[in-house]
Amino acid sequence: SIVDPQLKTGYHFQPIKNWINGNANLPNLLSALVELELAAPLYYKGWYHFFYQYNPKGAVWGNIVWAHSVSRDLINWHALETALEPSIPSDQYGCWSGSATILPDGTPVIMYTGVASPNNYQVQNIAYPKNASDPLLREWVKPSHINPIIVPEGGINATQFRDPTTAWRAAGDGHWRLLIGSVAPTGGTRGGTRGVAYVYRSRDFRRWTRVRRPLHSAPATGMWECPDFYPVSKDGRRVGLETSVMGTRVKHVLKNSLDLRRYDYYTVGVYDRRVERYVPDDPAGDEGESRRMRYDYGNFYASKTFYDPAKRRRILWGWANESDTAADDVAKGWAGIQAIPRTVWLDPSGKQLLQWPIEEVEALRRKSVTLKDRVIKPGQHLEVTGIQTAQADVEVSFEVSSLKGAEPLDPALASDAERLCGAKGADVEGGVGPFGLWVLASANREERTAVFFRVFRAAAGSDKPLMVLMCTDPTKSSLNPDLYRPTFAGFVDTDISDGKISLRSLIDRSVVESFGAGGKTCILSRVYPSLAIGKNARLYVFNNGKAEIKVSRLTAWEMKKPLMNGA
Ligand code: DQQ
């Protein structure tokens, strides 16, 4: 297939590709990089630091080091030298994920997983800044007399033991705690499937002891990669909390990345530091696939949060890999981007999180168009013209004229948003909806990615009379046949009885990142149009339902490209 350079994202974080200096004849592209995924974000002396898992030798996973970029605003990025690469016996086969913690004296430390043997023996190592007065934290040291800091002992599965979290400290006893993701050992050859997060405690950040019982575990979830554990304020305000805050005014969030399913799921619950246990408020949230809440119902994995003291917020940052072929990745010379950083806080209901793109992204907004009070009749669509929309930010408020025609929800599909949306895609006429946006659409719309809502009447006896489904349907996103194009979907826990619902989509050439109902449900999708590229990409509002829809307001902005690691 033809890989068009205009599919490279403009304002989503991405490293610059490598290229060979001084010899223009060499095939640069093949020397370029990147399996990208989050290792650790951090704020220090006025700079945001982003460390990420990176392959300096190619656009596939392997040779993993910690690359390092810094920013003043989480939008414009400068690439620095590699922060960590294999150099000691306990990381000679890879410097895998980890986290940074700011110690009470203000110094950051990194705890990361080192792969210490060719058969994947995993340990945790520590690294310190060589010069803590350097706000850019360019150089890191790994004292060999203290590393590894934590080794798998006591029957832990040594090949599934990784990704230490940011540590927190309880005021009462002064002990540090952190989590390490794993899977419960079963003794069998097939390995366990109960995902676990072990707690380790330390007084001095050097000697760590495991608490016998894990903080939490859940059946049939497999290895818990990149666990994350943090407090959120119960009062429903957007303000974030430093990782060590606890007490009656907070809830805790536990997030795990499921290697088996490749999504990030979380529960909201209560942390009891005396027994080092976490109990989710809704135990069902750990159970079946369909009961698990996800940060994002699309392509979003290995995310981490960090507390940003500059703006008193908690920021969630996730990784989105490619959904083209590995051969295309090699030809493009890059693979993997980061989602837009999101502010994350607890919904006033206390049941779920809300997410919204950090406000800094709005500084990239340029030329805009606004539509007001435009009615879209059943089966109709409306083009949004006057700006380029390959790289855009769109906010829209919809109003449904009547909810009476909402179709009944098939009970067999009621618990499976993804299958429901697969069966009732963007072109399947419904009662109320599907209505939403066609983004990255070609002139005659033979290519288009649909982001939409559909309203269902719930079965008698359910707690809510209406159910709202949000989907991203990429099945028509490209004429290129060699693409993975799953339909993504999640229910939106919103009260639509007044007919109102909002949608925001961040469109960026080969990514569509959408936020339903003010950030209740989020879906990131990677698409690779063959026609709807650059100036040829169009934007529409569509309504394939029987009920009339009003666009109360729609604003679309062209987005400027920020500084992106020198690209
Ligand atoms: N990838 C890292 C691991 C982590 C996984 C290695 C997440 O540390 O568990 O590159 O995708």
Task: Explain this structure.
3% of the residues lie in helices and 42% in strands. It is mainly beta and 567 residues long. Among the domains are: 152-315, Glycosyl hydrolase domain, family 43 (Tachylectin-2, Chain A, 5 Propeller), CATH 2.115.10.20; 365-559, Exo-inulinase, domain 1 (Jelly Rolls), CATH 2.60.120. The model is unreliable at 18-35 (pLDDT under 50).
What's the short story on this structure?
The protein is mostly beta strands. Among the domains are: 152-315, Tachylectin-2, Chain A (5 Propeller), CATH 2.115.10.20; 365-559, Exo-inulinase, domain 1 (Jelly Rolls).
Sum up the structure in keywords.
567 residues, mainly beta, Tachylectin-2, Chain A, Jelly Rolls, 7-stranded mixed beta sheet, 6-stranded antiparallel beta sheet, 3 helices, 3% helix
C-alpha Rg (nearest Å)? 23 Å
Structural class: mainly beta
Shape annotation: globular
| Total number of strands | 37
Topology:
Blueprint (H helix, E strand, L loop, with lengths): L27 H4 L5 E8 L2 E8 L10 E7 L6 E2 L15 E8 L5 E8 L6 E8 L10 E2 L19 E2 L5 E2 L6 E8 L11 E8 L6 E2 L5 E3 L5 E10 L16 E9 L4 E10 L4 E4 L12 E2 L6 E8 L4 E8 L5 H7 L4 E2 L3 E5 L6 E5 L7 E12 L4 E4 L6 E10 L6 E2 L8 H7 L8 E10 L7 E9 L8 E8 L14 E5 L7 E9 L2 E6 L4 E6 L11 E6 L5 E11 L8
Parallel strand pairs: 28-30
Antiparallel strand pairs: 1-2, 2-3, 3-4, 5-6, 6-7, 7-8, 9-11, 10-11, 11-12, 12-13, 12-14, 15-16, 16-17, 17-18, 17-19, 20-21, 21-22, 21-23, 23-24, 25-37, 26-36, 27-33, 27-37, 29-30, 29-36, 30-31, 31-32, 33-34, 34-35
The chain binds 2,5-dideoxy-2,5-imino-D-mannitol (DQQ).
